[in-house]
Write a structure and sequence with these properties.
The structure holds two protein chains of two kinds.
Chain A: E1 5-11, H1 19-37, E2 42-48, H2 53-62, H3 67-78, E3 81-89, E4 92-93, H4 95-103, E5 113-120, H5 128-139, E6 143-144, E7 149-152, H6 164-181, H7 197-204
Parallel strand pairs in A: 1-2, 1-3, 3-5, 5-6, 5-7
Antiparallel strand pairs in A: 3-4
Helix pairs in contact in A: 1-6, 2-4
Chain B: E1 2-7, H1 23-39, E2 44-47, H2 60-69, E3 75-78, E4 81-82, H3 88-101, E5 108-111, H4 118-121, H5 129-145, E6 149-151, E7 159-162, E8 176-179, H6 184-193, E9 196-199, H7 206-222, E10 233-241, H8 245-257, H9 268-274, E11 278-280, H10 282-291, H11 293-296, E12 301-305, H12 313-338, H13 350-358
Parallel strand pairs in B: 1-2, 1-12, 2-3, 4-5, 5-8, 8-9, 9-10, 10-11, 10-12
Antiparallel strand pairs in B: 6-7
Classes of the chains: A alpha/beta, B alpha/beta.
């Protein structure tokens, strides 16, 4: 039985139009192409953090997610794969990007295939993917694919063997393969399957 | 159905004047508020428990006993008693004493507390929050029901041949609620014992409360205490009223905008649409409150938070007048009319538990370990 796969794109770009969103779209399109070659049905759901910036801040203060933010968190939780794209600010992911990640319940990304990507004005920031994003998702026990994709402004106009599209395709292939090989298992819903009291008591005593 | 108020006991500056009450003023105000609750016909007064500034209620049974001495019908309760960091032996002793002093006008609500440093201050670890709540309550439950207890657990010195004194009034322990905002384990715990479950309700969207209460009800039935709709449910609520609803909004806004917990966050309008907070006329409060049963079912206790965020005592007392005179009488009538006959109207009280014990429906205590 084939089930439609869902690929979530979380993009933290702030300008409109945003090169961060553009990179996210390219990665999503390449991932979809590969998954379809594997015979998978797939849909893409994009979470634009800019639209949720106020709700994200409110969540910090109230402890709960209001309407569209709750939906976005659900989109990430239920997705078979996550493409996470952030602009690099001050040598790391943006504050908005990190705050959204902070709001995900523990276990949300456990074992989930994740592709990390980033944009910045120059390629001098590219290693931020390796020293900031990869450890963040490792901490969350996500399965980060080996290729991380960085796009500086100039990459959007450079061809050849090191072209952005080559890196996009390679990373997307890794993500699609990981999704295809994985038997999806989301986090356990503690309301649908509560831990019986006898087990709780055993754990305490 | 029981109606009442619960207090956090925060000492917060009044944002409209900048003045902060002294701890002495806040504690005296708490007593005035509780006495007013009885005067206007409310059933329950519940106090929080905190062990850090800016809160005053670190010794709940002292305050509740003082209030008990100055009231005659008011039921004294807690919201919540810290089952994680308080020795269950002390809870057994303190609340049994309060039962005797108040002639049974006491129940209590277990909670974990979410202030990180309180755990190490009392020699505990917040990462053990759930196991502490499970183990400590299990011991408390036995201390009130078995005259002699020998016990060993993870979190407390073992007991050999220990008797908690005084024994509960009439041999019947106080009714217990378990409060939790978001831990399914606590709903499971309440269901296992057939105790009450209280949903804080006021800081989160209704969908979340519905999920917690729904789990508790299903598991209450699973453990054989009755049907799911007979489980004992309490809800928090938060209101500010004036006869003219725009007056209520204008007066409450600075308190909302600067409130602890959610202040400087969402707008008053957003927060009232996302959570059960109601700011408006008594009629609006009635309509909103009557809507709660649509997502939690018919329930037995409604507590309102009325005295936080720096609201001056005089304003709080005015609010209680409106609550007691205009809101609660209508809610009593309307909830009674809506409730099916097989659903309990009130939570168990001391009198009802004594009567049930005499009818042999509950076994309140055992003389010796292992004896039935």
């Amino acid at each position: 039985m084939t089930r439609q796969r869902a690929v979530a794109v979380v993009t933290a770009g702030l300008s409109l139009p945003s090169s961060t969103r553009l990179l996210g779209d390219q990665l999503a399109a390449a991932t979809v192409r590969t998954l379809r070659r594997h015979g998978e049905e797939v849909r893409v759901e994009v979470v634009e953090l800019r639209d949720l910036a106020h709700a994200v801040t409110d969540h910090l203060l109230t402890g709960f997610a209001s309407g569209p933010l709750a939906e976005a968190i659900g989109t990430v939780r239920d997705a078979d794969a996550l493409i996470a794209v952030t602009p690099i600010f001050s040598a790391s992911y943006s504050g908005l990007f990190k705050t959204f990640v902070d709001l995900l319940e523990e276990g949300t990304l456990e074992g989930k295939p994740v592709l990390v990507a980033a944009t910045a004005g120059t390629a001098r920031h590219s290693l931020a993917l390796e020293f900031a994003l990869r450890p963040l998702f490792a901490h969350l026990r996500a399965a980060v694919v080996p290729t991380a994709v960085f796009a500086a402004s100039e990459d959007f106009g450079t061809g050849g063997a090191s072209a952005l599209s080559t890196r996009v395709d390679r990373a997307a292939r890794e993500l699609a393969d990981a999704v295809h090989e994985r038997v999806a298992s989301g986090p356990v819903d503690p309301f649908a399957s509560p831990t019986p009291f006898a087990e709780l008591l055993d754990g305490a005593g | 159905m029981q109606f009442g108020i619960f207090t956090v006991g925060d000492v917060t500056p009044d944002p409209t004047t900048g003045r902060t009450p002294t701890e002495h003023e806040r504690i005296r105000a708490t007593v005035e508020i509780a006495k007013k609750a009885e005067e206007v016909g409310l059933d329950v007064f519940a106090t929080g428990e905190h062990h850090n500034p800016p809160f005053v209620p670190s010794a709940p049974t002292t305050t509740l006993a003082y209030i008990a001495a100055q009231t005659s019908t008011l039921l004294l309760s807690t919201a919540t008693t810290l089952i994680t960091t308080t020795d269950p032996v002390r809870i057994a002793e303190d609340y049994a004493t309060l039962q005797h002093l108040s002639d049974g006008r006491v129940d209590l609500m277990m909670g974990r507390g979410n202030t990180g440093p309180v755990y190490p201050w009392f020699g505990k670890d917040i990462r053990d929050g759930i196991p502490l709540a499970i183990e400590s309550y299990h011991l408390l439950h036995r201390l009130w029901r078995e005259d002699v207890v020998s016990w060993e657990g993870r979190f407390r010195t073992p007991l050999q041949g220990f008797t908690a004194t005084p024994r509960p009034l009439d041999g019947v322990p106080p009714f217990v609620w378990h409060g939790s905002i978001r831990s399914p384990e606590i709903a499971e715990q309440a269901a296992y014992y057939g105790d009450g479950f209280f949903a804080n309700h006021i800081f989160w969207p209704p969908s979340h409360t519905a999920e917690m209460v729904g789990l508790y009800r299903r598991r209450f039935e699973h453990y054989g205490h009755g049907s799911a709709d007979q489980a004992i449910v309490g809800l928090g609520g938060q209101v500010f009223m004036r006869r003219n609803s725009q007056d209520a909004v204008n007066e409450f806004r600075p308190y909302f905008d600067n409130a602890p917990v959610y202040g400087h966050g969402p707008s008053l309008e957003d927060f009232t649409s996302q959570t059960p907070l109601t700011v408006g006329s008594p009629q609006q409060v009635i309509e909103r409150t009557l809507g709660f049963r649509e997502y939690v079912g018919d329930y037995q206790r409604q507590l309102f938070l009325m005295d936080h965020a720096g609201l001056p005592l005089r304003t709080v007392l005015e609010q209680l007048d409106l609550l007691g005179e205009e809101v609660v009488p209508v809610l009593r009538r309307e909830t009674a009319a809506r409730r099916p006959a097989h659903v309990p109207d009130d939570p168990p009280t001391h009198a009802s538990l004594v009567a049930a014990t005499r009818r042999g429906e509950v076994t309140p205590r055992r003389a010796h370990e292992g004896a039935a």
